[in-house]
Amino acid sequence: MSVTSVPGFVAAGIACGIKSPTNPDLGFVATDDGQPVTAAGVFTANKMTAAPVIVCRTNLARSQGRAAAVIINSGNANAATGLGGMQDAIQMSTVTAGAMGIDSGHVLVCSTGLIGNRLPMDTIEAGIPEVVAAATADGGPSAATAMMTTDTVAKHTTVHATVGGIGITIGGIAKGAAMLEPNMATMLAVLTTDAELTPKEATGLLQRAVGPAFNSLTVDGAQSTNDTVLLLANGRAGRVDPESLLEPLTEACMDLAVMMADDAEGSTKTVFITVEGAVTDEDAAAVARSIANCQLVKCSWYGKDPYWGRIAAEAGSAASAFSAETLSISYGDGTDTVVTYDRGEATATDAEALTGIMARRQLHLTVDLGQGPGTGRVITTDLTHAYIDENMGTS
Fold first, then answer.
1. pLDDT at position 276, please?
2. Going edge to edge, which strands form the sheet with 26-31?
3. CA–CA distance, 377 with 76 (Å, rounded to integer)
4. Is 266 within 8 Å of 385 (Cβ atoms)?
């Protein structure tokens, strides 16, 4: 279950010494014949943009949406590294292209890790030919492992679908465990498919699939310098209606996004927030995000406390139209929903049922503003002591 579940792609991951002699830190995904295919990317909106993001954007623009490989390092973000860092990112694409015998403009580059340090290029340049040579048709999971930083598990998925009578496959690998806030997160993701798409179609589909998935994820309200989601489409399954691919592509992105939330630094809860009854969808999304990023609310979830008062306060501060008399708040996934606040006052709840809901690893929270047709959804986590421990230092 990974990028190499799609016929025509190979991948690998190795330890080249960026982190330690034995910790995987260099990943590689490529077409099995080295030929460029349709490629698309969605990137961080942070203006403090890392060098590899700039290289990806540049290469996609120059190639008019074609790529044959992605080289990925973890342990160092190559961000805030100036002209030297840009030269390093370009060199990663050049060395990879040399090992493959292709044009460097068809190599995309991703980096993740600590900000502000130059890459150990001697180490990386020695490792690139090794990881290229190691690439196999079942190497996707090893590439996913090599992407990890503070992740505790590798993240990969495969989605199969029949579109217009044609069977297609979408595979994906990703990393991400903190600084998870749109647009996208401290995350890298590489997706592959055997559907035939033009670069314009692939870009449009990827942008739309990222919206309800990676762009609906927030752990701590911090936006990264390196966020990158890439899609490679080799067309081996044949031409399909691009619109029909949106659902399975979104499913693959959502699978990876939920894995990130479940593995977020120190989290004990993954929380799915749905806001209904807002004036507009944008207003609903703003309320959902305000609740998700409120430290008081996040601490309540960590304590398994459904404290609706903090949630109501966030809704009241973020909504463009609000009335306590139309507000309702409930926990549960629909089969066992418990309403904790309804139209102006707290409700008499089933304490045992609510305690059981709050003990779950995944929580579903619904906030109905009662003001209009707008809806919005966000995936988030609780805030724990372990998150603080993980982020107290810089190394």
1. 97
2. 9-14, 26-31, 69-74, 107-112
3. 32
4. yes
Between 3.40.228.10, 3.40.50.720, 3.30.70.790, 3.60.70.12, what CATH number should domain 3-262 receive? 3.60.70.12
Low-confidence ranges of the chain (pLDDT < 70): 177-186, 219-224, 386-395
Q: Six-digit token pair at 204?
A: 């449009």
Spatial separation of the C-alpha atoms in residues 101 and 36, rounded to whole Å: 12
Q: How many CB atoms lie within 10 A of CB 161?
A: 19
Tell me which CATH homologous superfamily contains domain 270-390. Answer: ArgJ beta chain, C-terminal domain (3.10.20.340)
Taking the model in full, what pTM does it have?
Answer: 0.87
Q: For residues 233 and 242, what is the distance between their CA atoms, to the nearest angstrom?
A: 12
- Contact present, 100 and 30 (Cβ < 8 Å): yes
pLDDT in tens, 307-330: 899 999 999 999 999 999 999 999
- Is 186 catalytic? The answer is yes
Point out the catalytic residue in the list 186, 218, 380, 381: 186
